[in-house]
Amino acid sequence: MSTAKKFDFHSVEAYLNAESSSLTRSEYIHGLIRAMTGATNRHNTVSVNVQGILWSQLKGQICRPYNSDTKIRVRQGEETCFYYPDASVVCEGNRPTETFQDKPVIVIEVLSPSTRAIDLDEKMAAYLSIESLQAYILFEQDKPLAIVMRRTPVGFLREMHEGQASTIDLLKIGCRLSLEEVYSGVDFTPASVQEHEATYERS
Fold it and tell me: Does some domain include residue 194?
């Protein structure tokens, strides 16, 4: 006898209310809630470096960077998702009292073995549906490499930036992300590996 897994569906209001008082963070995908796990030191080093670079270059500007505590709401028809990207840039922000943003121009994720499939599939499809989005950037952890999905007149095109000498130009917001700065403090020797790299190799 087989049993079907039961899913509990939640309204947007119920999710936001629960999230406002929760000690942990969860993402919301079309009524389902997915708990988030902690990140490694290497992941957080890359994430904080990116946030620092964006903050220093956007200081005093209309566009503002946000860290991983700010949710991005994605609405596709009648469906709604809330994601916590590692970093984002918003030029037309929501009300200060809200806990999410609707119109990011840049969204950034740092890939991990446990989340890369979601980041490269589910989240990519959701983020690229946002009308305001100019670029979705994904940084690897095990090597200095970035995947950039950049909006063009013919749709989003994929770019690869590899090596610490590479630079990602974000002309729409007047910023440049140097991979040397993004990966500052990250050791790529085998001794520094904090997650099972075979997961990367199979992806």
Answer: yes
Among 30, 144, 42, 149, residue whose Cα is nearest residue 79: 30
Q: How far apart are the first and last CA of the chain?
A: 34
Residue 152, domain member (yes or no):
yes
Q: Is residue 165 part of a domain?
A: yes
| The pair of three-digit structure tokens given for residue 127, joined into one six-digit string | 């983020």
Tokens of 50: 């990116």
Distance of CA 88 to the CA centre of its chain: 7
Q: Pairing state of beta strands 135-139 and 145-152?
A: antiparallel
With contact defined as beta carbons under 8 Å apart, do 194 and 40 qualify?
A: yes
**CA diameter of the chain:** 63
Q: Which residue range(s) make up the domain with 153?
A: 39-202
Domain-embedded: residue 138: yes
pLDDT tens across 58-81, in order?
999 999 999 999 999 999 888 999
Residue 162 belongs to a domain with what CATH number? 3.90.1570.10
Contact by Cβ (8 Å): 188, 142: yes
Q: What separation in angstroms does the CA of 26 have from each of 20, 22, 35, 107, 154?
A: 11, 9, 4, 18, 34
Percentage helix, strand, coil for the chain under 3-state DSSP, each rounded to 5:
25, 30, 45
Instruction: Give the chain's domain count.
Output: 1
Convert the pLDDT of each residue in 121-175 to its tens digit: 999 999 999 999 999 999 998 899 999 999 999 999 999 999 999 999 999 999 9
